[in-house]
Amino acid sequence: MRTAAIVTVGSELVEGLRVDTNTSEIARALNAVGLTVLEATSVADRVDLLTEVLKRTIARCDLVVVTGGLGPTHDDVTREAASKALGVPLLRDPRIESLLMPIAQRHARPEAAEQVLTQADVLAGATVIDAMTGTAPGLVIPTQRGTLALLPGPPAEMRPMLAKVLEGIDQSRPAPAQMGVVGLSESDAQLSAQRALEDHPGVRLTVLARPGDVKVILVAESTDADGLHAAADAVAGALGEHVYARDDSSLAAVVIGDARRAGVRVACAESCTGGLLAAALTSVPGASEVFAGCAVAYENRAKATLIHVPDELLRRFGAVSREVALAMAVGAREVFDVDLSVSTTGIAGPGGGSAEKPVGLVWFGIADGEDSFAYERRFPAMGREGIRDRSVSYALDLLRNRIRLR
Amino acid sequence: MRTAAIVTVGSELVEGLRVDTNTSEIARALNAVGLTVLEATSVADRVDLLTEVLKRTIARCDLVVVTGGLGPTHDDVTREAASKALGVPLLRDPRIESLLMPIAQRHARPEAAEQVLTQADVLAGATVIDAMTGTAPGLVIPTQRGTLALLPGPPAEMRPMLAKVLEGIDQSRPAPAQMGVVGLSESDAQLSAQRALEDHPGVRLTVLARPGDVKVILVAESTDADGLHAAADAVAGALGEHVYARDDSSLAAVVIGDARRAGVRVACAESCTGGLLAAALTSVPGASEVFAGCAVAYENRAKATLIHVPDELLRRFGAVSREVALAMAVGAREVFDVDLSVSTTGIAGPGGGSAEKPVGLVWFGIADGEDSFAYERRFPAMGREGIRDRSVSYALDLLRNRIRLR
To answer: In Å, how far is B26's CA from the nearest CA of chain A?
Structure first.
């Protein structure tokens, strides 16, 4: 079994009302067991179109995975389309029908009850994967070239069934090697990684960017795990200090882990990032061992009353300044009584900028014991959320580097 | 021109390394000008596969929009595949070549320089859309049935070019009617909406769920704007107080807008939500007119020192309790000197739960002038981020309802 196709069924996908995330998840899983995905198609809830897509992909690919369209409504056409595409009849399975009967009976109208029971129609010759969290079972049917798998659309229902389908496909390629990279642009990370990979053929590079944070992924084109490992080491060596993780850990998780191991307690004071930094740190289970809290001092008066920033500094230098960033970090460290604190104060836009203090200007403060430091960044015009996200990554990296120095 | 297909080119899409967002965005735009998208396919960076997909979609659909694969690297195969699929040669365009020459000359190696210049290869008969932010131009070529558009992959480059392609396709359906709904599950919202739509044929319903917040979208299957409006009114009537917006505004934006109009200043105190509530409120441009700040009192000591929660209450009732939720809200209101404040304190999991206080238990406090109220919710097992997101929606809705009462 070598080739695969993914078909995601649902009109909302081709009307642009929902982003298709199943394809990405299923593609990762199929690639991980050594299959090559030739195409991934989204198609509307239309029997004619889906039947065509199925005929084509079944003829072309060894494994075809279909998600969606297995529910009880008139728009759920996957069973019918598969029946047409394979030329195989649908038969009511009495065991599944009896499992669905209590749900069917909740419906007053007989047509609605019958609709529920259509989920018990099974293609002749199919293996049934019983529903685990939803109502529709999955169906796995042999085809000329290999296998057709019909799975429910909702990811939580699809996931365990996909795992069952893939059991026994034992052509494992090594899992992709991932690393988290901070402080480098996507193109700089890509250039460095590509240069390092020149001595490592058979490894494909993908670089995914988020504001201020880049994920580098190396995929082996063979089953050579040692070769992939050597390539990953070479890339990590080239990227140096910018690599914060050699797996898919988030930057926040690395900070929390490093702080816990170093016995360091942390707090923060935020203005323009408005709580996003604290939210990132507290998204990590176990953050409470390390993180005391955050003062989101959004208005100037709160900077004074909550974290003791002197009014004088706010008046003389303004909220977005080295002086206030330092005072915010020092104040948070005192108020929360921690070892290390970080502050953010800046202009996320779209309004609020000026010639001297443009949108994208953000000051960061660090207070570490008796020491305190301030850093100025001028982020490009990347939108309010982009500037806030970029600032969170920068602040997390400041914490990471400060903890490493202890 | 009636039918369309979307083709997104890139191996990272079929390897599951990047989620395809272009399809969703382009599908929305195509539907908005009255086109029906028959299929949306992602395909690897392979000339043979892409040529096949193009041949098929060009034969089937009036408009085919392709994104990706127009760059300067060996993996960029879109121009070549389109040339093969259409049987039309590629010709070097001297004007575009001269625009790219400065970039090509930055490369020391002649092969790299030549690769850059391949972006000046144009299909005979194509209209060129000059690059606005990137380097690769878009190409629009007449086909047997209509049009093939080749656009760059990066959304910021693709977007303005897509707009140019769609100028002049004047079959406007009314834009979908959207509404934001809070406090109803996805299935309850769907049932209510469906019942309301029984008297409004020709309108399709899509319901998209996020934790605690549901988006209801109505799409007209014709050009009848009045009919769509009447259907939207009927659905909004059925959903009643749960409708927080009759457009795609976020719940946070509605709260900030309502607070501004009512002249109400707001602050919050968070524990388990860890800054997410403040982040949601501050994501709204202009939040500073209304929002003073937030105390993320993550550890118990911070609840006492930052927002004056009496140690006695923490000892007797624990952090996750009616008493502490009230004290947090009242304390935040005083410390930030605002009109209205909300607090969250709960157990987001995965650890920290017990028989009496299980994961998913969250208390919310509201302090409004002299009044204060507490609300208890027991969210189902939906993961740490699910419980936090659900809590943020609930807290925002408490604010929304409280402001409406003033």
So the answer is: 7
